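Action item from last week, closing it out:
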Amino acid sequence: FISKPSEINQTFYLKYQRSPEQATDYFYQLSKDSNYIQTKRIANNIHFKTASDYGDLDITINLSKPEKNPEQIKREKEMKQDIAYPKCLLCAENEGYVGRIGHPARSNHRVIEVPLEGEDWFLQYSPYVYYNEHSILFAKEHRPMKINRDSFARLTAFVEKFPHYFIGSNADLPIVGGSILSHDHYQGGHYTFAMTNAEEEFSFTLDDFSDVEAVVVKWPLSVIRLRHTDRNKLVDASDYILQKWREYSDPAADILAYTDDTPHNTITPIARKRDELYEIDLVLRNNRTTDEHPMGLFHPHEDVHHIKKENIGLIEVMGLAVLPPRLKEEMETIKKHLLGEKVTVAEYHHDWVQSIEDRYSLITKDNVNKIVEDSLGQKFARVLEDAGVYKTNQTGRDAFKRFLSHLNER
């Protein structure tokens, strides 16, 4: 038996008076106890850290999210969907919803009202938490994802209310965006990602916002980090950079703002608080496709598709790989092969396995796990490098600096 939504909200805010952490601890535990968070399924996920040039990356092989079989998808498609309630899986109407074919029951689902910047927003946890206290913050209104000045204002307002959480948004364009672009939402949680701890490469000055601390982060994707004690200053500076980036082209660096009327440039933003400072990361994204890279020029390239070919969304951007379930079996097979057993390795892994054999002369039962995990981590670093609009080499850094200079042009 789960309490009524109004009672849960009341308890949450009573605990919030003591501390924001007590409030989220209570709600997280409740979401696990009610089995809304699929604790048993999540326990099957594989998770490890692996060293890279950019710090320790998180690798997860996600076995908890159910895959639909083709028959089920076909049945759902054939059903007449005259019902448009709830409109999507993120709508507030899912709270307590009994479900229908093609839309899961949510009778054990509860959400917390978190007003932001004069609007109704709601906090819930992800049923398939990818990291500690993986939460989703969504608008009451069913409207498309959009990154704009209001996004920066809401993200910083949220970390003002919950300073122990980070919060970020997927980008608002296909390929570089998340899996749900139809409903405005953000993702947050109580977790420190590799990107949060990444070194700072160099600082620069924004002439119009000279008191805002601005740095470029040493990271495979192109990240501008801004800091200030006043969140409104960060909102102004972030919006300025977004406007400039949306219209910016640099053909020498393969960056075009538009193809005809189709926009390509957007931002994946992430906000957090460090003591008294508000911090916002602006990850520059571009969703162009080319003949050579039809799935996306700044998207995992074909030679890493054997590991990952889905969108690089917010969670991956920050350094946590969410990899497909098939890799669990495939990695076990690869380990057996490396130890000399007669097994059949999937053809798309052949080049990768060959490169592991070329690199390591002695592979034993004692080191095979670490060798394969590290090699997988290196592949994920490459996936992230593909998604970076400015590469981490000298040419890429020079091009990045051209954009930073452009920010100060009148």
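Closing note: The chain has a mean pLDDT of 92.
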